[in-house]
Amino acid sequence: MTMKRRNSRRLLASAVLVALAVPGMAFAQSAKEVELEARVAQLEAQIQALLQGQQQQQESITRTQAQLDQVQVAQPASKPVQSKPILANPDAVFSYGGFIKFDAMVTDTSDGAIAEGSAGRIFYVPSTIPVTANGAEPDTDPYTDMHAAFSRFWFAADHTTEGGDKFRAYIEADMYGGGSSNLGNEVSTNTHGITLRHAFVSWNNWLAGQTWSNFQDVAALPEAVDFVGVTEGTTFVRQAQIRYTSGPFSVALENPHTTVSSIATAARNNAAGSDSLPDLTARYVMKGDWGHFSAAGLVRQLKSGDESQTGAAVSLSGRFNLGASDDIRWMANYGSGIGRYLGFGLGADSVLDANGNLHAQDGAGGFVAWRHAFNGKLRTNLMYSVAEFDNDRSLAGWGPASFAATERAQSFHANLIYSPFPKLDIGAEIGWGQRELEDDRKGDLTRVQTTVKYTF
Q1: CB neighbours (10 Å) of residue 299?
Q2: pLDDT tens digit string along 134-180?
Q3: 305-340 pLDDT tens trace
Q4: What 3-state DSSP class applies to 120?
Q5: CB burial readout 248-285, b (16+ within 10 A) else e
Q6: Terminus of the chain with fewer CB atoms < 10 Å: N or C?
Q7: How far is it, in rounded angstroms, from Cα 393 to Cα 407?
């Protein structure tokens, strides 16, 4: 309270005393007067205490209001603390997904076990099927492998500008990267490193980064419990590239890499490292309710040191729908220098003869698969795949060791896949594969594989 209000209270108390005084009475105070003055003094003390409490309360309210005013100056009350996401591109639409995949398999190979730690232990790789000398086939018991290495995840960001330009950034990885230390093996932790599968940016008709080769038709691949299944007969490459797409037509410049086989030993050199020109690929796709058809071409420079050759290949593929429950998927590939694009590099791109001359190697392969859906939850796939390579025996330096080169590989696969709930797949597959060398030696593989896969 103000000083003016306190003085008013004192004047009120004095007026009470004056009004109660009797004119002409003696100045000596009676007992009643003393009591009255005491009561007035007590009342004044109570009023004074009340006024002090009100003053303190008013000062506290004033301080609080000042603090609120400071907050409002720093951040107006009409706006939220954060009006937009904390993103480099707040207008982008972000999405993510992937799946968890558990695989368990029992493998029986005729000519010895596939080496532990090899890719052929966790999915079908025909080049890893052991082949020994005739009459020296070892007695190998079936062996079991389990892993979750092919579990994967991806992230994407899509953005369309006010002018209608469309942008997309996409990155995808799985766990098929091998162990990173002694703790990353089957003894203890079964650790796998992250493997980059895709990483690219696209804007309108252009794409730059790593993704499936333009020479590959991913849409034609059958549904397999194995990682690929029809490995021998399919083109299968992910690599860095610059691609332009216009409607059904696409063309790309892709990362070059030449694999070279020695004529003297049939040993493979997968790190030639002297490539100077990018691989050129082109594709045309037709689509309809009937399915799709794709035609792709490949032209590349094969190079080892100062030696170089030109390679060219073609790939035809597609899917034909047979009613609502069936379809046929297929692929046919042929070319010179097609090696690393076919069957996970089952054959080499080129051969170096005894005179140091480089020769492009011819190869061919394909697959056919039938898919049938029994109902909305149960389906089956039957597959056959094959690849052959022309090992030219007329080349200088051809000798006994040259017969160790792979001439042919083939496989059959049959599976049942059950989806008791949406995005949950439980599958079982039986496969048989065979690899044949140039001197007719053969080794085969029989595998029973199961999987549990949940897509999110």
Answers
A1: 15
A2: 656 677 899 999 999 999 999 999 999 999 999 999 999 999 986 55
A3: 889 999 999 999 999 999 999 999 999 999 999 999
A4: helix
A5: eebebbbebbbbbbbbeebebeeebeebeebbbbebeb
A6: C
A7: 12
